Amino acid sequence: MSEAKLLIKLLGVFAAQAATDSLLVDIDGCMPVHELIRRVREQVPPLVDYLPDMNDPDSQQSVMVLVNKKIASPDTLVRPGDQTTIVSPFGGG
Amino acid sequence: MGSDYAGRVLRIDLSARSVETQIIADSVFRSFLGGNGICAYLMAQEAAALDPPLSPCSPLIFATGPLTGTRAPGSGRYAVAGRSPLTGIWGDSDSGGHWGERLKGTGFDALVIVGRSLDPIYIWINDEGVTLRSAEGIWGRDTFDSQALLLAETDPNGSALCIGPSGEKLLPLACIITEGSHARAAGRCGLGAVMGSKNLKGIVASGTSRVRVADPGGLEESLKRVLPRVAKGGARLREFGTAGAVAGNAAIADMPAKNWTVGDWVAESKSIDGAALAAEFSVGRYRCPGCVVGCGRVVKIKTGTHAGTVAGGPEYETLAGFGAQCLVTDLAAIVELNDTCNREGLDTISTSAVAAFAFEAYERGILTDVEIGRPLRWGDSEALVYLVDQIAKQEGIGVLLAKGVREAAAALGHGSEEFALHVKGLEPPLHDPRALSSLAISYASMPRGACHRGCSHHVERFVVPELGYDKALDRFAWEDKARLVAAMQDYAEVFNCLKLCQFMMSSIPMGELVNWVNAITGWGLTTAELLCGGERSNNLKRMYNLQCGLSTADDSLPKRLLTEKLPTGGAADYLPPLHLMLPEYYEARAWDAAGIPTPDKLRDLGLNDVLPASWSRG
After folding, report:
1. Interface ipTM
2. Do A93 and B316 touch (CB under 8 A)?
3. Does B347 touch chain A (CB under 8 A)?
């Protein structure tokens, strides 16, 4: 299977920690969001403390992945060309 | 007493200048847990509970929680409650800081304040007792100066809360501030005006007693397990504070813009988000006692009267309110506005809401240069600073706007009610129910009106097996959402009763929370009993609101949020079907079709013994 790159936008604390507001991640055809996050963690070590493993149920409250503007579940498949954004929404203050 | 509670409530009648200690049974604290719950209980015991909010007899209640003053992280909050002058119904609010633990250190768990002093006064509570002192030299001062003076006159190691000039002027947008220039605010429902109506400028608490913990070893063991999770879970909050939510909330269109009409303000939001605040203004962080996160920001003010000073920075709600809702991208102005509101003692959520309302009224020609005194165009930060100044000084258009959007629109007319967004009179926080269906049912049903503290945020994401939710739900779907919201409201109310910071909610497993409560109090509560405490509190507030004349017609949302779709952005074309969710919500709560708790529900919660005989049950 040919390997392509997926452009990921980072917002808020993720952009600050990665010192960039976008990343290119290798993607093999398609992959689930939880695998994508694993690769991002591997590629950008400063994000490890902020971007939890999505197989951890707690992570669903602290990180959100938007695929083509829709909130994705850990099992949602992403493909090359998908508009992908990692955000951390919360309320209060 | 089997618990850490002293079981003592201080009741102060400012008219009679009398002080009385009431003994409350441990079983009451066990049932209502503390904080907001004990406020609701104490309110129901007061003969004047339903008096008009600013009448002398109307009670104002402050309370701590069972975790206050212990090593439990995020447990330093206090609650304040009364009948809201903004909404006319149940009002409560709370804030972090040291005041709660310093009150508990005096041996009192709560304060009930009634009556009205003839002259401005303040209350000092310490280990020796209670003193009522003249506040003549402090009245009229802003909250920062007032707290400094209060502590200088009493105990520099104590903690003070106070109102600003807005509370003294009885403005329905007035709040209560503590922690000096760090400015932690009990912002909502206008309870600062209730303090002002009593001629009560502030309360200093400087108790030094330590809280008794029933099982210190058990608490430490649990803390060892939980603290790393809390620290890890709070990493994102530590980095930017709640300001870090701006970018993400804009991306999913949860953050409203232009008075709830724009759904895509993502690009502009970068001007006011956490990174911008950190880069241009932040000079430090603030943390509540025992907190391992430290979400508060310390910023340098760059514009206005207090340029060059250092104070508490704007939170998410303030950034979204003065920023996105007014289309203002001038972060220096928002930092200045936040500081102005904190000093004057104005709730930034309601104040920014009424400002956005004024911008739209001007755009529609309902307000003109004549009424306002200058042009008022979206995005004009100078105009926004001018508006808030008018509100604070009670000059010009500020007299009308200080009434809140409901009353301002009623007075203004010309269809302005259509864009005066409120629920039960309370301006919504900065989260859009068109982006999260849970918010729709939660805003419509919460006791104090549209509220972000009564049901956490985006509960669709929460995985809480104890409540029957082991996977995240779709944010737009409405099926089963009402049951989730009812359950999460009660869970959030447990936090509000314990006076535990809700930012801990996703980091503390429910079982460990039960361990904390039992280790501290020795109550031996089950998980179900703990949750029942939250449900009991919410149902008692509901009964209070029914006495105030509330009906199911009030359990609604502003027309704009039910009928006007966002044209673009992350939540475009969605409207929450509140009419489908509300009956399910009543059913989940065991309320009848009129939204009244059934006799069986009141009996099961043990509320029949608490409700005054004069209160209607249906």
Report:
1. 0.86
2. yes
3. no
